[in-house]
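ingest -> validate -> predict -> emit
validate: passed (alphabet ok, no gaps, 329 aa)
predict: started
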Amino acid sequence: MRRLVIFGVLLVCMVSLGSCVAGMVSMPGTSYAGAPVAPDEAVVVSLTNDVTHLAADIGERNIVNTPAALEQTASWITQRLTALGYEVKEQPYPVGERTVKNLVVEKKGTALASELVVVGAHYDTAPGNPGADDNGSGVASALSLAEYFAKREPQRTLRFIFFTNEEPPFFRKATMGSEVAAKKSREANEDIKAMLSLETMGYFTDAEATQHYPFPFSLFYPSKGNFIAFVADTESRELIHAAITAFRAEAKVASEGASVPASIQGVDWSDHGPYWRQGYRAIMVTDTAPNRNPNYHEQSDLPGTLDFTRLAHVTVGLRAVIETLANPK
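emit:
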């Protein structure tokens, strides 16, 4: 009898846990499951060229091993944004005896200019890593989106930030670029309605058993690493629902989402985390990095390992997300 009671209690707990997790991963809309569709070729070419320049021409870029390359990357991003008509504002801050900087541009809003939608990607790499996926893919997508919205008139102000020092040994420290930016926004009492962190977005595979998750999330998601993931904390649930609804209405690539407690390991592993800690609503868009990509933080993180067709579909889908967030009904 005692064993039966214990089994019953465990069963109830498992059912309760399953229901709780199901609520976290349930997302509106339907993930794309149709036949492959040819992407916008101009977007593919742009993404390929930018990632190749970052990971092959420049290579490893961080203040620890290659400060000159980090500065070269910042100058290149500045040139790209200036050519699009943006005024680039540097957000410098000291790290030891050196100075590093975030790069910020804005497309001023019309009717709701004081409300902001932030789109960010970090341009540094982990030591020893050329960083095609992490995070050349995010930077390339952010540049493509900045180009697209340079010609639009959003109601809310769009702010594109290219962060430095996301990677160790600065991750979660005061010298992390997004920590600096998020803190400045809070100190200025800025009305940020949404923040999108574009993080490690270009590795996809249709092979079985290539996607990994912490238990019990493995019970709810596909085993193929062929989708883009939207990740939010529980406070950002409304935001992620709006974002993935807009994405799924436009994008021709599979997508999954989750709104989970920020305390779960890995959930805050990028530039959205500091915005959560400052009380803002934010989501990460990612291929799930070490949960899928075997080249994560390795010298093998090279442009040839990425799927630029799917990355282009993700980027085009994010246009719809930003349009939705920047133009509330």
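The CA atoms of residues 94 and 113 lie 31 Å apart.
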